[in-house]
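Journal club side-thread
Mid-discussion, someone asked how the predicted structure for our own chain would compare to the paper's figures. Pasting it here so we can look after the session.
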Amino acid sequence: MRSFTLAARWAVTLVGAALSARAVPVPTFHKDVLPILQRHCQPCHRSGEAAPMAFIHYAQVRPWARAIKQSVVARKMPPWLAEAGTGEFQQEHRLSSAEVATLAAWADGGAPAGNSGDAPPPAQFSSGWTIGQPDLVLDVPPAMELPAAGTAEYIYLIIPTGLKQDRWVQRAEVHPSDRTVTHQVLAFLRPPGSPWLANYEPGVPFVPKRGGGDSNDTAELLVAYAPGRPAAVLPGGQARLVQAGSDVVLQFHYTANAKASMDRTQLGLIFSPALPQQRVMTIAASNTRFVIPPQTDNHRVDAQITLQHDAELVSMMPHLHLRGKDFEYRAVYPSGMTETLLRVPKFDFNWQLHYNLARPKLLPRGTRIECTAHFDNSANNPANPDPQAEVTWGRRSSEEMMIGWLDVAFPATLDPAKVIGPEKKARPGKAGR
């Protein structure tokens, strides 16, 4: 009898647990899933944007339910590569644990639609400029003709700004017409009198010659476009200086998507109405003298830059190519203390993300910014173009770069040379584990 009683109790407990589990409702698309998609996915997953499929309506999303679960559980989507707990950043594209659990439970539960009356209002997205109507729009003169297949070279284009006086830019946006094939667009400033790319005609697209002395890893970055990356918007009191007579040098990188296409990019600028208190400028800790041996899976490359004046760190953007494995920024303060500013443990060339600090960080004079990257040039790297190649610096994706871009802010009246100062050449990369 005692055994029967215990067995009966266990049966009741198990049945009760099963009934409780059944009582938990399966998330539905309109009530539970759609709000998450609106916040984190639809900026890219909609018509005309970079993602290959739209996530607006139930019929569009339902076939991808299992794939969505796999991507969010593995933290592949939405793309946010910064290691949690290292630094605090604006607009972190990171799902909460509850959001991941909701999407997984929805997929496991059969991906039900639910009641359409539970859906939130449709998210509103701008089809034009997100920064507002620009004060100056620079058009790419010819449309870029893009093949359906093949590996695209980096294409450059010089556009004169036509500015007759110095202007301070508070907002900037790169606006490609075909984002499905646009992997990245970088807009650099070329001040008047600069010899950089002086042999190329403005308004005519070109691919710089290899070894022709056309590289300039110290050029100031004005703004960049990459899928999922917002436009550059500075708060009041901060702006970037564009000198009178400057040119903008655009660098385009396209990826074929099985159909021929054409892209015509625009660059929009909104000027500060008054002289700002702080100038924001992009500087770089870079290394162009590394050599990555064939069949090495963890080759280390270092770079550094030392500030010669107090400045505030605003943002960071690591840049590597297809063999890039990880990236780390560290600040070594004059006191000797070292602080990790950003760690990207799994770098992904497909997502060139910009990490804007939640709050600017003071970097006292003498602070050294150290950057460390590792490269996987082995056959175990599925993105590796050629594991047998010895790899050096170069613009092509099959070559490599090692750049730790930094946005710093300092008094607008201060000469930038007093902030950056003379810097020792970067040391060649070393192998490491």
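Post-session note: Residues 1-8, 14-21, 423-433 have pLDDT under 50 and may be disordered.
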